[in-house]
Design brief:
- 2 copies of one chain form a homodimer.
- Chain A has 646 residues and is of the alpha+beta class.
- Chain A folds into 3 domains: 126 residues, Acyl-CoA dehydrogenase/oxidase, N-terminal domain (Butyryl-Coa Dehydrogenase, subunit A, domain 1), CATH 1.10.540.10; 134 residues, Butyryl-CoA Dehydrogenase, subunit A, domain 2, CATH 2.40.110.10; 329 residues, Up-down Bundle (Butyryl-CoA Dehydrogenase, subunit A, domain 3).
- Chain A contains 23 helices and 13 strands.
- In chain A, the strands form 4 sheets. In chain A, strands 1, 2, 3, 5, 6 and 9 form a 6-stranded mixed β-sheet that branches. In chain A, strands 4-8-7 form a 3-stranded antiparallel β-sheet, with no helix packed on it. In chain A, strands 10-11 form a two-stranded antiparallel sheet.
- The longest helix of chain A is centred in the middle third of the chain and has 33 residues.
- Chains A and B meet through strand 12, helix 9, helix 10, helix 11 and helix 13 of A and strand 12, helix 9, helix 10, helix 11 and helix 13 of B.
């Protein structure tokens, strides 16, 4: 039955956490849906209230161990965050700060006594907290942040201090209004020794809401969006923090000041600490895609009813989705949304499975997951920014009105490209991991001297497939290398080998250039990497494109119903071919496409756009977003208006 | 002296209206500068007050004839609007509605008696008014709007009426709060005859601000930006409009209802009426570029002081602008800003010169100017949206804070891509004009049946050069056709011929496909054009790229000082080469670039980015935006913070 096609699509997209997704749809009723056009104070008041009322079934705290009130399902908590993003992005960020970053840091960086003392109250929302890492002067290079925590054995406490204005904690969610506690990242100093960045659990307000002694809290003020999130600035004037408030899983300070850690190297230790917080990035990437799906649902549905201009042979006006240019924008974006949904699902599954082992994750595996989280966060947030912008424009003037939701989606998600890791920095991290085969992903987030050195040693790039390895190997092996004109344009094996080939070639080229630079630019070590920066970023993006296509390929296989599977295969064709088309400059330049075949790719994309035209509405319905959540006036009214017009 | 390089650049960029630009810089003091983080009501109150206080020297009304209080300088009024856009975009839109659209319609569509009765009070700001064209149901296809004006000879008045909800006037600036009058566009009906869309001058509020009898005014509500503009919705319930309130320059109704017009065809008459309003598009395009320049100035200056990550051989942190990827984004956008500045200057000059003739502008010339205005509006607003977004991201978290101005610039300009003509529709208009050689640019804005027919008759495309024709011909003739590898990558003649060749080939291809479609798709006339829509849009964009490069080439020639000229030539190289690089897929696909030369283009762009690195700050300083107008906290504070950090 074609009629329930949206439901069948939704089942495939919902994946492993389908029941949790359905709980969110059921439990997050009208009360939780975003309110366009609020003032800042109204939004903060509403979100502050709602964040404590999120029904447990939604699962924001499901990642914590059962003994403290969770369900030991970290994948579920990432999915829950993503669902909140379709209801209200301020609510998602506020919840993400509370249970993801703040609670997550106490859990991941703290030890048993911290867990017992704090997790129940954090999980219940009785204690709202902040994640105070970023400073005004250091956002991307957090390893160099300037807040200090000097240990005093006499009082068995740390002296937490902000030495410069640029060292104040900045952009901190939950700080300006609601936070009572904060996990504060600071340089640990004992005597003459600096031990690098550590995390401290610090009360920042008393029960009445007044700042704690020595703590100064400012308001980050008006922002582009996320009006419901109270971002603030925190400074410390020699605040005394008791010794047991150091979150000491990775580094301990004895009463006499003796420092111990299972990880000797300060940098490596810090990046291990950061690594445990990878879930934040996963949640942001997933939330960005969730918001893009809201925007696409609004724009596609509007495009099904909005008419403009008559056909040459008719008095009937044409619906927007019938225009090729309109379809090209919207349908290719719908295909990308499907692709990212599968990529996100497999990332959450893999991360969840790795964590489920209970013990430590093998180093190389941990780094691959971190890299994938970073890459998918960057590409999903970039895609969301572009897609939501495009959807707002596709709705014309209506897309500029707050009542139609698109301005809020755009403004709220806008910060995602630069928070939880700036996208450029994250893609560099991905590139670096690839260049070194994850052998030395530690070191400063840039630290390109080392990467150049490691690249010198690389002999051959081996790409590791990330999903459905057997299937993908079979598909790729089934097409001739450097697929020629005889290979069908919709052969998945050809798409996969095009994506793999591009990534491999870009990486090998970068290695070659880094090697050459390492020889010729010994006196300008910064330039060795910097001159190749655009090349490395391109390689990182090609890598993400490849793992996304692998995930889409694997995801299609999970559809059991033939009609659904056939449709998903077409959507995957559109994703693969429109991605190749968008980068045809590279493929032509490197003679992976002949001019004739490049033109044929454009023709094939247009054919798919025509073929999928009747399925446009079903494809967005398949995202499974409840009507109440979409909350756009144009969807409620357009039908009536049209009927009175025709 | 290199020290005053910014001043010398500014002199060239300021162009013919340099003194007017300087007046705006001098007269628009702190009072007028935008206030980030205001609520909607605060912004409306402030802008409503300020719009009546704009000093005469700024020139918003300078386009009207001297006898009514202007200076007969329409170019000056467009430049004045553009300058306002750097101070406050709501103020620019509010002024644009009042003196550009409302006043402009009374002047262009009205006759002597309207001018004498109303222009002095409009120019002084005593009567604030609206331009009520767009309806909820018809924005792009305004020819089909539904408001009716039925003439009644008995009362010698029109019955102005909104027959459906979808026919209400929507998004109308000045309507929700301040407007007393409106120019209302409606279908004129006399007896059984419909005469197409005409404009009527209608009081919508009394002196106390209450809606006039039969007029219902609503508020468009919260918007993404432009909070200071009171956009509203107006409906008419059989409102009686006296006969002499028809703006009757192009169509007259005698007391007995006899209709006369110098233009027989209703469609042609309507498009002539629209054509007189082309200045609105010119102002929006210029304002978009002006706002992009504000954003670039903020991002480049911040990138000169903001440091992040240390170099491998140093403890000194690296300024953002030293990173290749950062420079690639910002400097190529600076080059585009220079390019669009010259293109806008030449458009305003040509339009101004055409209008200065006093009489009617020759048809073909009029259509070329309309097309250029449409194309440059589309490309400048698209570029502004992307550039401001990029600048906000280039400033990281700081770029998300209202105090740093970028969120406001983004949100305020966002509507430009879809108002005063949706960009897709405008580019179609450009494409259509090119395909028909401007022979039949009338007809419905799409009306593609006719365009396909006209295209059938096209034998050879002849491109008309728009600036410095002799110089450009000489440059193009100096390089071999289909420039081969022996031609230097920075030969302007090669760039010009690459741009021309692309446009010509795209147009010829579109003609060929339309002709073939006209034969094979006789039963599906809509598809004849629709199947080629993406191709036509691409041709239109290539056309705009070409006229922009021509303008840049001509603009560089106007620099008299050798150092300035040499620098502008480099910036022009960067514009040309980065534009070719961005579309290298096309050039390779059509064998205008070999793979080796395509790679060389990328190398040349990177070389230019390095070469221009020391001039980055001077290039944005050359935009000549007063510090007070930039109004971004990061520019005021970053210096202090850094000095305390280092």
């Amino acid at each position: 039955m074609t009629d329930d096609l949206p439901n069948r699509l939704r089942e495939v997209l919902d994946g492993r956490w389908a029941s949790l997704r359905q709980s969110a749809r059921d439990k997050l009723d009208d009360r939780f849906v975003t309110v366009p056009g609020e003032t800042g104070p109204q939004a903060r008041e509403r979100i502050s209230r709602l964040v404590r009322q999120i029904p447990a079934e939604v699962g924001v705290a499901t990642g914590f161990p059962a003994e403290f009130g969770g369900a030991g399902d970290p994948g579920g908590s990432m999915v829950a965050t993503e669902m909140l993003a379709q209801v209200d992005l301020s609510l998602m960020v506020k919840a993400g700060v509370q249970w993801g970053l703040f609670g997550g840091a106490v859990f991941s960086l703290g030890t048993r006594r911290h867990h017992e003392a704090w997790l129940p109250r954090i999980i219940s929302g009785d204690v709202l907290g902040c994640f105070a890492m970023t400073e005004t002067g250091h956002g991307s290079d957090v390893q160099r942040l300037r807040t200090t925590a000097v240990y005093d054995p006499g009082t068995e406490s740390f002296d937490l201090h902000t030495p410069y204005e640029a060292a104040r904690k900045d952009y901190i969610g939950n700080a300006a209004r609601d936070g009572r506690m904060a996990v504060v990242f600071a340089q640990l100093i004992v005597g003459e020794r600096r031990h690098g960045v550590h995390a401290f659990l610090v009360p920042i307000r008393d029960d009445a809401g007044a700042p704690a002694p020595g703590v100064t809290i400012g308001d980050a003020g008006a922002k582009a969006g996320l009006l419901g999130v109270d971002n603030g600035r925190i400074s410390f004037d020699h605040v005394r923090v008791p010794r047991d408030m150091l979150l000491d899983r990775y580094g301990q300070v004895a009463p006499d000041g003796t420092y111990t850690s299972s990880i000797d190297n300060d940098t490596r230790r810090f990046f291990t600490m950061l690594g445990t917080l990878v879930r934040g990035r996963v949640s942001v990437g997933g939330s960005a895609s969730a918001a893009a799906k809201s925007a696409l649902t609004i724009a596609v549905r509007y495009g099904e009813t909005r008419r403009q201009f008559t056909a040459p042979d008719s008095d009937q006006e044409i619906v927007l989705n019938d225009y090729l240019a309109h379809r090209r924008k919207l349908l290719t974006a719908v295909a990308r949304s499907y692709a990212y949904t599968f990529a996100q699902e497999f990332l959450v599954r893999d991360l969840s499975d790795a964590l489920a082992g209970g013990g430590e994750v093998e180093d190389r595996r941990q780094r691959e997951l971190e890299s994938r989280a970073a890459g998918l966060k960057a590409m999903q947030t970039q895609n969301a920014t572009r897609t939501i912008q495009m959807c707002r424009e596709a709705c014309g003037g209506a897309g500029y009105l707050a009542e139609n939701r698109l301005p809020g989606l755009k403004a709220d998600t806008d910060v995602f490209t630069t928070f939880e890791g700036d996208n450029t920095v994250l893609l560099q991290l991905v590139g670096k991991g690839l260049l070194t085969g994850y052998r030395d992903a530690f070191g400063s987030l840039d630290g390109w001297g080392k990467a150049a050195f490691a690249a010198e040693q690389v002999r051959e790039m081996v790409l590791e497939r990330t999903a459905a390895r057997t299937l993908i190997t079979r598909l790729v092996d089934a097409v001739p290398k450097r697929g020629d004109a005889s290979v069908g344009l919709t052969e998945r094996g050809w798409h996969l080998s095009m994506f793999e080939d591009r990534e491999k070639h870009l990486l090998e080229g970068a290695v070659r250039r880094l090697r050459r630079g390492a020889e010729t630019k010994r006196d300008r070590p910064f330039d060795i990497f910097n001159d190749v920066q655009d090349h490395v970023l391109e390689a990182a993006q090609a890598h993400v494109h490849r793992i996304v296509l692998e995930a889409f390929t694997a995801g299609v296989e999970e559809a059991t119903d033939p009609e659904t599977k056939a449709l998903l295969n077409k959507v995957c064709d559109l994703y693969a071919l429109s991605t190749i088309e968008a980068d045809k400059g590279w493929f032509l330049e490197h003679e992976r496409l002949t001019p004739a075949r490049a033109k044929a790719v454009t023709g094939a994309v247009n054919d798919l756009l025509t073929e999928l035209r009747p399925r446009m509405a079903a494809l967005v319905d398949g995202f499974g977003i409840p009507d109440a959540w979409l909350h756009a006036a144009i969807l409620r009214e357009e039908g009536d208006r049209q009927s009175s017009m025709m």
